[in-house]
Write a structure and sequence with these properties.
Helix content is 42%, strand content 22%. The protein has a five-stranded mixed beta sheet with strand order 3-2-1-4-5, with helices on both faces. The longest helix has 27 residues. It is globular. The mean pLDDT is 94.
Length: 209
């Protein structure tokens, strides 16, 4: 008789989905035409007190795919030179595999069914990842259309929908000089998501008393 896997607290919390916080930086707004330049993914964990916390961050600079459009204004906004040698950029295929490998491992380790992307206005991030997956024939570990949006959650919990305002409203430090890099934005988004989930869990615990 096959032994049933005991679900982890993470697998139980979101209907079997593993939340992974993602941010991308791009050379425009069209996922089919504009280059995907940076991806950062922050894994989450539950500590011994039952609080959600950011865990490991995985990151890659990407080389623009062949024929990609590079919008000058977008590049100036994020402060990226796509072909600077010190970016140590890799191909989309290598970058996606680098980011996806620990996500797939965590899905298996926690007994989850798949990952679900958490982001600030995450449809943008997911659309670029899906387009890159299509170009490289790499299977995406995320749910293909469901996401968790910290713009909505931040508005609900703290009355702020802009990341630079929602993060301080949650009591988390924010540095405008570091913003608009995939790592920084993903890590602050992860802290914001955890703050909202922990606040909700605390409220639910009070109601049960």
């Amino acid at each position: 008789m096959k032994k049933r896997m005991t679900l982890s607290p993470i697998a139980k919390r979101f209907r079997g989905f593993l939340p992974v916080v993602v941010d991308v930086e791009t050379a425009g707004f069209n996922p089919e035409l504009d280059a995907l330049l940076e991806i950062a993914a922050v894994m989450l964990r539950i500590d011994n007190e039952g609080l959600w916390q950011p865990d490991e961050t995985h990151f890659c600079h990407l080389v623009p795919f062949e024929g990609a459009h590079l919008d000058k204004k977008a590049l100036e906004f994020i402060g990226v030179d796509p072909y600077h040698p010190f970016r140590f950029a890799v191909s989309e295929a290598e970058g996606l595999e680098t980011i996806f490998k620990p996500i797939r491992q965590a899905v298996k380790a926690y007994g989850c069914s798949r990952a679900i992307l958490v982001g600030h206005n995450p449809s943008f991030d997911l659309s670029f990842i899906m387009a890159a997956g299509s170009r490289t024939n790499i299977k995406i570990p995320f749910h293909r259309f469901s996401t968790f949006d910290t713009a909505t959650l931040g508005g609900l919990a703290f009355g702020q929908t802009v990341l630079a305002r929602a993060v301080p409203a949650a009591g988390i430090k924010w540095n405008n000089n570091e913003a608009h890099s995939a790592i920084y934005d993903a890590e602050r988004t992860a802290e914001l998501f955890c703050a909202v989930v922990n606040l909700w869990n605390e409220g639910k615990a009070v109601k049960r008393q």
